[in-house]
Amino acid sequence: MALLEIKNLHATVGDREILKGIDLTIDAGEVHAIMGPNGSGKSTLAQVLAGRDIYHVTEGEIIYDGRNLLDLSPEDRARAGIFLAFQYPVEIPGVSNMYFLKAALNTVRKAHGLEELDAMDFLSLVKEKLKIMDVDQTLLNRPVNTGFSGGEKKRNEIFQMAVLEPKLAVLDETDSGLDIDALRIVAAGVNALRGPERSMIVVTHYQRLLNYIVPDFVHVLSEGRIVKSGGKELAFVLEEKGYAGLGIEDAEEEVARV
Amino acid sequence: MTAVSEQIGNWLDLFTAQPPAEAWRKELRDGALERFCALGFPTTRDEEWRFTSVAPIARTKWAAAPEATADADAQAPWSTGGIRLVFVNGRLAGPVPSLPKGLEAGLLAERAELNRIVPETAFTALNTAFLDQVAWLKVARGAIVETPIHLVYITTADAYVAPRVLIQAGADAHITIVETFAGSGAYFTNAVTEIVAGQGAVVDHYKVQRESLDAYHVAALEARLGQSANFRTHSISLGGKLVRNDVGAVLSEGAEATLNGLYIVNGSQHVDNHTTIDHAKPHGTSHELYKGILDGESNAVFNGKIIVRQDAQKTDSKQTNKNLVLSDNSVVNTKPELQIWADDVRCTHGATIGQLDAEALFYLQSRGIGRREARSLLTYAFAEDIVDRIKVESLRDSLEKVLFEKFHEHADQ
Hints:
Helix content of chain A is 33%, strand content 28%. Chain A has helices spanning 42-50, 74-79, 97-111, 119-133, 138-141, 150-164, 180-192, 233-241, and strands at residues 4-13, 16-26, 31-35, 55-64, 67-68, 82-85, 92-96, 143-144, 168-172, 199-204, 217-222, 225-230. Chain A has a six-stranded mixed beta sheet, with helices on both faces. In chain A, 44% of the residues are buried. Chain B folds into two domains: 3-252, no CATH class; 357-413, no CATH class. Chain B has eight helices and 20 strands. Chain B has a ten-stranded mixed beta sheet, with helices on one face. In chain B, strands 3, 4, 6, 7, 9, 11, 13, 15, 17 and 19 form a ten-stranded mixed beta sheet that branches. In chain B, a hairpin with a 2-residue loop joins strand 1 and strand 2 (91-93). Chain B is globular, with a radius of gyration of 21 Å. Classes of the chains: A alpha/beta, B alpha/beta. Chain A binds chain B through residues 50-53, 73-75, 77-79, 83-84, 86, 89-95, 100-101, 103-105, 107-108, 111, 143, 160, 164, and chain B through 357, 359-360, 362-371, 373-374, 377-378, 380-385, 388.
């Protein structure tokens, strides 16, 4: 059975339709790249999967792990194993990264009938994950994303993913704003988390990230629809010929980053 | 009789019923009563009281507070480790503890610097008219008192109490003071604290106001800062039905003042913070950050006056007021009031009134944290910004706990 089935998904923000009939099926353990020019709806799809309420699904359905995903609140989706790595991680002054992650992990554990971790157990678990992500431990005591560099924020996202161990990770332009060294570290962290029980949707504008996170499938999104699907080689075609090579206009970024 | 003379008549009765006082106090009392009678209670037609009506205080016939005992550990758990003076219903309870070298503390025995710096208003006059036991702290020149000194005021009866404090820090002296106000019942606290900081002195002042929700609390805090003195005050306002804080600081050359505040109101609570920072001389620095959290049908007023005198060149002043409004029925009135007479200064100010950040809420939810829990966490974080600046560890830890529980309780409603 597929882990995720998106059928004829239409979504609007305000009175503007962004997604105009998306069909996508993802099986357990698969990594799907979603590529597309600015304004094609990639980030909207990522946010709709996580349950951001500014988007309204007007048609279609999303079946996740046998459940109707659209019935679930964002927190219930997270507890059911969906994780969105934000394109723009939010700064939350006054809440320490440690407190935040422990609260998050324990609600997820509780939802799975597991015991909540105490401070000691949590710390030893986290230390192990820090190593994978090459993240400094002092980051734990800092307020969530506050004053982090762009690279630190993205690494913190993947670090959270390592701690929460989702079934479906959606990486929204995780490569944007990263230099090549930071990109390698983030990609290595993501690759370390690949496994037969974990599916991923990697949203990106550029093929570059896919040199490091090699997808099983590539889909090209344009104007709210998937216009082409293929294997990883499709990314190379895009790299070579650009979106224009597929007859797709790559507009300047015009969709507000919501 | 008119309403005003009726009000004053009530106070005259209370005034004449006071136990007699020695000459210096009697003189101050008599003069102050006269001034109070001339001034009368302010009304909302007075600019300084536009958004705060004290009519409920004015029309009540207040009684004197009886002698009583109270559990200070329960009311101010942060004060158990330091040097502590507890006042119950206005009277010092227990002996003055042993004091470190360089510190004198207890009850004021002569006028000294009392009533020399606090601006005269109906309320400060009304405090002076009822001068009784005045808490007094004096730090000798150059003395560094590391242990915080706690002044705890507890009121247990439906009465009028007029706490009065005089703090004198000698040149280069260091002192930390925590004032806590608490109680039960429908009483009226009218407090005045005067702080005189000598040249190069460092004075760290905290005020925790957790009065009964039926109580009225009006307080004036006035600090006079000598050359290069450093004064910090943090006002945490949690309780009270109607609360008015007037905080003032006058800065000499090179002095630094930090005025921070946190007010958290719910139900029908009303809190009004008026601050005045007077840069009288050059090279002064002031920082001001007041944050408020409003819920229910509560009201908050912030008025931040900053005066930069003609002589006060190179002044650096920053004022910020941020309000987090959790309900549709809360009202905030915020106003910066800058009077700048010098030309080479840097003054910035800003005020915000907003709700919880929707993106931050979604971010927390997307990690599995429930919406209510996320709301309480963000609310706590908003307040923590101020609490985190508190240097007295026992106070900071206790307040963190109080706030954490407060917002989680809120979230469960």
